[in-house]
Design brief:
The chain is an alpha/beta fold. The chain contains 11 helices and 11 strands. The protein has a 9-stranded mixed beta sheet. Helix 2 packs across helix 3 and helix 4 packs across helix 9.
């Protein structure tokens, strides 16, 4: 078996939800300095049965995919779909994100972030119909209002109507029987979500600490327990958070895009 075949053999055995670095693979082959050779071999791979998206750079950033950094977003999306936790730019600030349907990843994220276990996370979705998966049944009026609000940097808390979903998604709603959602306007995020599925996306920091503005700051919190997608320095602000549990909209946090909807909130509450 030649060097290339040995590389592919190791990569083929990386489980879903896990990653190795190019250096890890080179070291397993007895030559830790051959990581560039490993990277070059994988950059030329076009066999989708060999999961080269599970191989990342030694600094735990995503790296290229299919021979180009232009495809890094897809590599990120595939890793998120499989259960990997990633620090990545959201439409507001850096978030520590994972697949909302992967309970193991969600619980790990809570521990890494030192998050209050009773606090639910905001969930990013790509379309309003995704709400049905979580047992959210919208009245005609609520749907019309949400269609006016989204896509935007506005997160909306909605009641779970299905008893089965209340039981199944307890690890997400944390006993509140409600969940917060946001449909981002970012084309980058929407591309990710269409592959990864819905993502929980709290800010990339420990509880009660300032959110990370750069990947370097995020690494001080999470080290090599997550992967990183570098979007440069982000000086955004958290999303506006509103509750739509009853017929009226309650403002819980004024944040990004609030000015875009304050008149809508006032008008809808008067109906």
């Amino acid at each position: 078996m030649d060097f290339k075949e040995k590389v592919f053999e190791i990569v083929s055995k990386i489980p879903e939800g896990e990653v190795l670095t190019y250096k890890d693979i080179a070291q397993r082959l007895g030559n830790k300095k051959a990581y560039r050779v490993v990277a070059n071999i994988l950059s030329q791979n076009r066999n989708t049965q060999i999961p080269c998206h599970r191989v990342i750079k030694s600094d735990y950033t995503i790296g290229g995919y299919f021979g180009s950094y232009k495809n890094s977003w897809k590599k990120l999306a595939l890793l998120l779909k499989e259960g990997v936790i990633a620090v990545m730019p959201t439409d507001t600030i850096y978030g520590i994100c994972c697949n909302a349907f992967n309970k193991k990843s969600v619980e790990k994220m809570y521990k890494l972030r030192k998050r209050n276990p009773k606090k639910p996370c905001i969930i990013l979705i790509s379309k309003i119909d995704d709400l049905k998966i979580f047992g959210i049944k919208l009245t005609k009026r609520k749907k019309e209002i949400l269609q006016k609000i989204w896509p935007a940097k506005i997160s909306v808390i909605l009641q779970i109507n299905s008893k089965a979903c209340i039981r199944f998604f307890e690890y997400l709603h944390r006993g509140t029987k409600s969940l917060a959602f946001r449909i981002p306007k970012s084309k980058f995020l929407l591309k990710i979500l269409k592959i990864s599925g819905p993502l929980i996306a709290p800010s990339a920091n420990w509880e009660n600490y300032e959110p990370a503005k750069t990947i370097s700051e995020a690494k001080k919190f999470f080290g090599k327990n997550v992967v990183y997608y570098n979007g440069g320095k982000i000086k955004g602000e958290p999303s506006t958070l509103i509750s739509f549990l009853n017929n009226k909209i309650e403002i819980l946090r004024k944040g990004a895009d609030f000015n875009k909807i304050k008149n809508l909130i006032l008008t809808s509450n008067q109906q």
